Amino acid sequence: MEGKNSQLQQRKDDALPRGTGNLCQWYVEHAENATLRDGEGNSWIDFAGGIAVLNTGHRHPRIVQAIADQLEKFTHTAFQVTPYESYVALAERLNRVVPIAGKAKTAFFSTGAEAVENAVKVARAATRRHGIITFGNSFHGRTFMTMAMTGKVAPYKRDFGPMPASVWHARYPNSVTGISVDDALSSLQDIFTQDIAPQDVAAIVLEPIQGEGGFHVAPPEFFSRLRALADEHGILLIADEVQTGFARTGKLFAMDHYAVKPDLITMAKSLAGGMPLSAVSGRSEIMDAPGPGGLGGTYAGNPLAIASAHAVLDVIADEKLCERSAQLGAQLTDFLHSARSQCSSITDIRGLGSMIAVEFASAQTAQTIQQQAMARGLLLLTCGPQGNVIRFLYPLTIPDAQFGQALEILSSVLSQHADS
């Protein structure tokens, strides 16, 4: 008799289009903090975190309670029709902590792609310019504008026809492939010379640490020189912190690691602990550029998600998750460097806080390690242009003993790939 997972997989293949691919062939029925369970009695340690959504873990009691309390009041009104205080209060909280120079303002949306699209709208309204520059190997979303901004064709752009115009890609600094800060800045100058005049560029958009692109960290020098270049030409600098935000890098935002500040910042994923919520924050005079009604959406700032986000900020502060992120990341990095001495297929280890990645010599090695780890009860994700990078996105609330157990599983798997 077929198991429940096999039956569900057959139903999925029959009911869903093939474009909705899945990593796992098993189906989750329950989750708690850093543990996932299926309907057949199996469990996994979750080092994927819903792709960086669960920095506060699955079903944190304070988040569950906050959502339950809001359920007793109302679930939806559409903020632009009937506003509510919790939305305003969350914007006030974020305005106090976002790495923006001067007075900030915030608007809420539902997804990371929505946040990025609205940041572009705000930038174009504020500058009266049209050009957008992003970077190779970046990921900004799956809507048409954010697909155009994403610096990777497969699987995000392939088969979907012409992308929106006025988007260009510069090179992102990458020590592994030998792209220096000078190379990256030179590529921007090439765009200004060959594609679009700088006075027509509204914004430069980049991830402080590339997510899907392989967890490459932007060097501080790059941000400083990029800020100066943007200021020289009146271009806005937008930090896409959809994946890097909310304690993942050891600080509330990755931009807190840098001396410079962006003009706008996008966030989503771990903002609301598993509920769909995103935001754009920025300098108040820039955020005020669109007219009334220019920003919004039916579900934007849903009250259940807003309540969850308030609880997330409380948990990050009260449980000191920024410090926890740095501690766990240091432990993981030490482990990986030790493993590298026995495993020459590891070619690089990088990241900030608990946004850590390990790169392997081939995609086949990375995927084999991923599969072997899953067979032992550890869920991992790959990333990078060639798929040869394993990234670690565990909940920052994971118990020490369970974190140690995950490293034991990883050690067992890596030992099979050790040099003879």
Protein topology:
Elements: H1 4-15, E1 28-32, E2 35-38, E3 43-46, H2 49-52, H3 61-71, H4 85-97, E4 104-109, H5 112-127, E5 131-135, H6 144-149, E6 167-170, H7 181-194, E7 201-206, H8 220-233, E8 236-240, E9 264-267, E10 278-283, H9 284-287, H10 303-318, H11 321-340, E11 346-352, E12 355-360, H12 363-375, E13 378-379, E14 381-383, E15 389-392, H13 400-415
Parallel strand pairs: 3-13, 5-6, 5-7, 7-8, 8-9
Antiparallel strand pairs: 1-2, 2-3, 4-10, 9-10, 11-12, 12-15, 14-15
Helix pairs in contact: 3-10, 7-8, 11-13
Describe this structure as you would to a colleague.
This protein has helices at residues 4-15, 49-52, 61-71, 85-97, 112-127, 144-149, 181-194, 220-233, 284-287, 303-318, 321-340, 363-375, 400-415; strands at 28-32, 35-38, 43-46, 104-109, 131-135, 167-170, 201-206, 236-240, 264-267, 278-283, 346-352, 355-360, 378-379, 381-383, 389-392. A hairpin with a 2-residue loop joins strand 11 (346-352) and strand 12. The protein is globular. The mean pLDDT is 97. The protein is α/β, with parallel strands linked by helices. It starts with a helix and ends in a 5-residue tail after the last helix. Helix 7 runs parallel beside helix 8 (220-233).
